[in-house]
Automatic annotation (TrEMBL):
Biased composition (Basic and acidic residues): 312-322
InterPro entries: DACNV
Chain intervals for the UniProt region annotation (Disordered): 299-322
Taxonomic classification: Bacteria, Pseudomonadati, Myxococcota, Myxococcia, Myxococcales
Occurrences of domain Probable sensor (ranges): 27-134
Protein's UniProt name: Probable sensor domain-containing protein
Length: 441
């Protein structure tokens, strides 16, 4: 890697963090990260049983005990509490297994090839050691105590490196150099932030669904809009996590959905297209019953003589069970629908999260895709022209769809690159593009 412009990933990471880190990183930590980055990078070039190794490690200065001490805030039944952020599996400290090296990572990487799972690395007796395996529970909207001391180094493809902390990507390395940060925004901000143009468009698409959802105490379970954004967030995360490439298009209102169904390779049976929103409604209703029921109990609500006495603990247990079951059913359906992005062409969803079809082919006109402009802000202020033609047919198709259907929201993922969102606001002529950062998987 002595050619001009090429850097070893460790040195590139050191320079990058010195220039872009929001808070300074201490030199001893920088030196460790350089070693970690180079080791993960070269391990990604190895193969095990004929398959390329996708390496992911979690580093904490206190190793496995430090990871076990990370806590995040959760609300269950209206009560604020803390839970362990990482589920861990320790490994015995035998040198042949736990020495931190390229060879050891290549051998152990398949054991961590699961969502949010990593090989745990930390110092022991003055050396870096592999100390176990760990799985990060689902990230919440709250900052986890101690998460700032955890670094995730991930090689999604051979020769690639992604570094994340606190669930956010802070560095990406491809083709011998860091990937410029550009103006990439977090997927979470795009879908949940009140100033986001994409979130506003999504709420317009799903206005009837939002109104149909029961109200939930906002600080304890998210407001009604939050649940809709969360459903879309799950679909995009699933598409990005498949590492296959995919395209999801959300149609606005006033569209003939039957036209899309007939042109899609796969569609759900009549009446089944509403399954996603129905499961979301059941889940939010169960969550509202649990949380709002707890609030009624805390407010000292009295029971009239006409009402039969109920065991409060039994009632709470039943509500918690319903909440867990409906959430699990909903998340399983989101995963299944997101899996449809592995089918070639587009997965199309209509207003109110109607699942229309998969395998929808978007015809690209002879004149090529429309002009696309990089969005400078969440609100959608147009920036410079974005060279959409540098990407493959999937990106060009996404631009065509966004341009042809004003108000549509299109998410597209490359097999080995970031996820992007395209949207042409109603009444505007420019197709906008946001390059996105996904929470580390």
């Amino acid at each position: 890697m002595d050619e001009p412009g090429l850097q070893y990933p460790g040195e590139a990471l050191r320079s990058w963090l010195r220039q872009f880190a929001k808070t300074p990183v201490a030199e001893p930590t920088l030196r460790l990260l350089v070693v970690l980055a180079d080791t993960v990078f070269f391990a990604s070039l190895g193969r095990e049983e004929g398959e390329a190794t996708r390496v992911r490690i979690a580093y904490h200065a206190q190793g496995l005990p430090g990871l076990q001490a990370v806590r995040e805030t959760v609300f269950i039944g209206g009560v604020r509490g803390h839970r362990q952020a990482w589920e861990t599996l320790p490994l015995e400290p035998k040198s042949s297994i736990t020495d931190f090296s390229v060879e050891a990572l290549v051998k152990l990487a398949p054991a961590a090839h699961l969502p949010r799972t990593a090989v745990v690395v930390g110092p022991r007796e003055g050396k870096l050691r592999i100390q176990g395996l760990a799985r990060r529970v689902e990230y919440t909207e709250f900052h986890a105590e101690g998460e700032e001391d955890v670094f995730i180094l991930h090689a999604p493809e051979p020769g690639h490196l992604v570094v994340s902390t606190q669930g956010r990507e802070v560095f990406r390395y491809e083709q011998g150099a860091p990937v410029p940060p550009g103006r990439r925004v977090a997927l979470h901000d795009l879908l949940f932030h009140e100033d986001s143009a994409v979130r506003s468009a999504l709420m317009e698409h799903c206005a009837t669904l939002v109104e149909s959802l029961p109200k939930v105490q906002p600080l304890m379970g998210g407001n009604r809009e939050w649940y809709v954004s969360n459903a879309v967030h799950g679909l995009i995360r699933k598409m990005g996590g498949l590492h296959h490439g995919g395209l999801i298009a959300f149609l606005p209102k006033q569209h003939d959905l039957d036209r899309f169904r007939t042109r899609g390779k796969y569609s759900l049976p009549p009446g089944q297209g509403s399954l996603l929103r129905e499961r979301l409604q059941r889940f939010v209703q169960a969550r509202a019953d649990l949380i709002n029921g707890a609030w009624r109990a805390e407010s000292g609500r009295t029971v009239s003589e006409a009402e039969p006495p109920e065991d409060p603990e039994l009632k709470k247990a039943a509500a918690e069970h319903d909440d867990k079951v409906t959430e699990s059913d909903f998340q399983a359906l989101v995963e299944s629908i997101g899996q449809l992005t592995a089918v070639d062409n587009a997965l199309v969803l209509g207003p109110e999260l109607e699942v229309v079809c998969a395998g929808y082919q978007i015809a690209i006109p002879r004149s090529g895709p429309p002009q696309v402009f990089e969005a400078r802000t969440l609100q959608g202020r147009p920036g410079p022209h974005y060279p959409i033609s540098q990407h493959g047919s999937r990106h060009r198709a996404a631009a065509v769809f966004a341009n042809q259907h004003s108000g549509a929201i299109v998410f597209v993922a490359s097999q080995d690159g970031p996820v992007r969102c395209l949207h042409r606001p109603p009444g505007k002529k420019k197709v906008l593009l946001w390059s996105l950062l996904l929470t580390e998987d």
